[in-house]
């Protein structure tokens, strides 16, 4: 029995997987169990930011594995404090709650918003995706994801993305928080308009709700800036982050401004594994590599080049750094043919392709990817 048949026999069938068994990775490439090499433009869904099995990351993890893996938040650990200090520097936020995933980070943000404001209502947007746990799902728009699990957390209302008038109709004095993806990822890479973001800011001033920016997919250089919020010059009350934070090692975080943090009390939230020494070391090593190798700048530069090359042959190409979407006739078939020819890409809908490669990608690899797509 092969690996795929063994998987079907024992693992809950909640995923649609490509028919390939990946065994190892290096840089922008992964290799299957038969030794075939693939250029990876998915990066574990925008996660393996510094490339597969980066040497600095591996060495830092080995060193930490031999010292301390887990002890819980009943005690202090140095990597957690060091990471919080570093995040304060690069994210411009004041306090940090560590968890294990993007969905967990969103769950924390929703709880903190209710605790800090005393209000109950949340507002999200059409096309937004924030996770599949009950709270995160409640502020995720897609009916297909939501319907089987209702009733969800309420009250939640959805405004039309990039439509200030639609937002104005649903926010009020009862709104605890507005949560938004500044670049929608699962929808197929669609950035927020500046006027729309300005309207959110003005309505926040008017009604006093909190602004949660979901940076789970956009954070840590993905968009050509450290965080997507940096493109807009805004200061959210909270940011959720995960994915690229540990370059493959599970870690999430909800970052808060002091004005929100001071309203959160001991015991309001917690996590057994959140902020464990191994995960925090992974995040610190990831940030070190991003800084040392100039990967935020490379994301901006290579993203611009990638978009330019794609516009020569594809429709509706939209890119913000190395977060790129474009349309094809049959996205599922396009993904399958790319796989056959040694290229990993991802489709978010019947026609939409999303590319989120490692930030270490080079011009040569971009050219190779485009060549495979065209053939």
Automatic annotation (TrEMBL):
Official protein name in the record: Acetylornithine aminotransferase
GO molecular function: identical protein binding; N2-acetyl-L-ornithine:2-oxoglutarate 5-aminotransferase activity; pyridoxal phosphate binding
Reaction catalysis annotation: N(2)-acetyl-L-ornithine + 2-oxoglutarate = N-acetyl-L-glutamate 5-semialdehyde + L-glutamate
UniProt cross-references to InterPro entries, sorted A to Z: AcOrn/SuccOrn_fam, Aminotrans_3, Aminotrans_3_PPA_site, Class-III_PLP-dep_AT, PyrdxlP-dep_Trfase, PyrdxlP-dep_Trfase_major, PyrdxlP-dep_Trfase_small
Positions bearing N6-(pyridoxal phosphate)lysine: 243
Binding, pyridoxal 5'-phosphate: 102-103, 129, 214-217, 272
Origin: domain of life: Archaea
Similarity annotation: Belongs to the class-III pyridoxal-phosphate-dependent aminotransferase family. ArgD subfamily.
UniProt key word Cell inner membrane: no
EC nos: 2.6.1.11
Binding-site positions, N(2)-acetyl-L-ornithine: 132, 271
Leftover remarks: May also have succinyldiaminopimelate aminotransferase activity, thus carrying out the corresponding step in lysine biosynthesis.
Cofactor section: pyridoxal 5'-phosphate
Pathway: Amino-acid biosynthesis; L-arginine biosynthesis; N(2)-acetyl-L-ornithine from L-glutamate: step 4/4
Subunit description: Homodimer.
Lineage: Archaea, Methanobacteriati, Methanobacteriota, Archaeoglobi, Archaeoglobales
Subcellular location: Cytoplasm
């Amino acid at each position: 029995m092969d690996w795929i048949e063994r998987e079907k026999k024992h693992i809950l069938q909640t995923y649609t997987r490509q028919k390939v068994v990946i065994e190892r990775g290096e840089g922008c490439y992964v290799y299957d169990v038969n030794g075939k090499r693939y250029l990876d433009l998915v990066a574990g869904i925008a996660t393996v930011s510094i490339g597969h099995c980066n040497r600095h990351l591996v060495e830092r993890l080995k060193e930490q594995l031999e010292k301390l893996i887990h002890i819980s938040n009943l005690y202090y650990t140095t990597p957690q404090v060091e990471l919080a200090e570093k995040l304060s520097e690069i994210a411009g936020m004041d306090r940090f709650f560590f968890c294990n995933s993007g969905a967990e980070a969103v769950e924390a943000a929703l709880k903190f918003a209710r605790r800090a404001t005393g209000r109950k209502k949340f507002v999200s947007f059409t096309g937004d995706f924030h996770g599949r746990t009950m709270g995160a799902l409640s502020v995720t728009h897609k009916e297909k994801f939501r319907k089987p699990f209702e009733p969800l957390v309420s009250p939640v209302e959805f405004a039309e993305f990039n439509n200030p008038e639609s937002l104005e109709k649903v926010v009020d004095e009862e709104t605890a928080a507005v949560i938004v993806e500044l670049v929608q990822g699962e929808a197929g890479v669609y950035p927020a308009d500046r006027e729309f973001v300005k309207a959110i800011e003005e309505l926040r001033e008017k009604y006093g709700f909190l602004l949660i920016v979901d940076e789970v997919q956009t954070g840590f250089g993905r968009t050509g800036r450290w965080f997507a919020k940096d493109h807009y010059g805004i200061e959210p009350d909270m940011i959720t982050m995960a994915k690229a934070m540990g370059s493959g090692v599970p870690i999430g975080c909800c970052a808060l401004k002091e004005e929100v943090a001071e309203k959160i009390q001991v015991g309001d939230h917690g996590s057994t594994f959140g902020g464990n020494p191994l995960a925090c070391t992974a995040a610190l090593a990831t940030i070190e590599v991003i800084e040392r190798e100039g990967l935020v700048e490379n994301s901006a530069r290579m993203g611009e080049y990638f978009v330019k090359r794609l516009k020569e042959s594809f429709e509706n190409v939209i890119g913000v750094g190395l977060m790129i979407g474009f349309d094809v006739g049959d996205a599922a078939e396009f993904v399958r043919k790319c796989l056959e020819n040694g290229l990993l890409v991802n489709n978010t809908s019947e026609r939409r392709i999303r590319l989120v490669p490692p930030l270490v990608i080079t011009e040569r690899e971009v050219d190779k990817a485009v060549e495979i797509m065209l053939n």
